[in-house]
Amino acid sequence: QTLVERTASELSAQNIPVISPLSNRQGKMYPNFIQSIPQNHLLENKMLSYLTANSIGKKLILITDQAGTPKIQRIQNLFPGIVTIKPRDGNFFRTEDISSKINKESENWIVLESNNISVVSSAIGVLNSLSRSTNIQLYTTDKNEAFDFREVSNMHLANLDFTYPSWNKNVDFTMESDFINEYKLRYGILPNRFAIRGFDVTYDALLRIATAENLFEANESIEGESIYVENKFNYVPNSAGGYNNIAVYLLKYTKDLQLVEVNE
After folding, report:
1. What is the mean pLDDT of residues 85-100?
2. Rounded mean pLDDT of the chain?
3. Average pLDDT of span 117-139
4. Computed over its alpha carbons, how large is the radius of gyration of the chain?
5. According to the model, what pLDDT value does residue 155 have?
6. I need a labelling partner for 16 at 20 to 30 A (CA). Which of 53, 56, 107, 223 fits?
């Protein structure tokens, strides 16, 4: 990200667009700087907007070790009746810590907010066991590395209909795609996420340039989302200069371990 910002700075006088392809860290913006990965607060907003619109009549429970942080305070303010559960000393849960707060007669929507591996794996293990006899669905505003830790079972996430916001989705290689077919024909292997990201960012930029005098005019004139293999783009001006991508997915694990986009 530092190198991308330096490049944008060096080229700003010539008004040459610079696209940041792999980082969403918000540093110094320039008029020619285009941030192609949505920032974390946009992902958080996407998830909270979905919960606000769809959680009426559900039992809402917040599991977190981040009490008192701005994000947790925001969630508690948005959902005044939400029940908050904190981990025990040692960052783990016993079944009764969570089962005592569950409503067996209604849907229980659990919001898990933590980047601690022990907290995440312990909570998901308990929730999975409770889901055998209770209607439980799991949500988070931030699917960080703790959710990908080896102790967290994808089967458990599927059992819990785990739903989270993301700036990209996993490609289904069984679906017909000109890019995937051409890539496999040329290189003999399927494209990895970096190859797909590179294609999506570049192809989108080329199509935008084809519709206007330059990339900046295209970003201003094109409305709505442009969707490609794994990524989508909707650029809006940043008040500090340049443009930010605000297009975000909501993804959910299905019972057969597929990831599908949630219709809002």
Report:
1. 96
2. 95
3. 97
4. 21
5. 96
6. 223
CB atoms within 10 A of CB 3: 9
**Full 3-state SS string of the chain:** CHHHHHHHHHHHHHCCCEEECCCCCCCCCCCCEEECCCCHHHHHHHHHHHHHHHCCCCEEEEEECCCCCHHHHHHHHHCCCCEEECCECCCECCHHHHHCCCCCCCCEEEEEECCCHHHHHHHHHHHHHHCCCCCEEEECCCCCHHHHCCCCCHHHHHHCCCEEEECECCCCCCCCCHHHHHHHHHHCCCCCHHHHHHHHHHHHHHHHHCCCCCHHHHHHHCCCCEECCCEEECEEECCCCCEEECCCEEEEECCCCCEEECCC
Average pLDDT (110-127) is: 97
- Which pLDDT does position 245 carry in this prediction? 97
Cβ atoms of 140 and 112 within 8 Å: the answer is yes
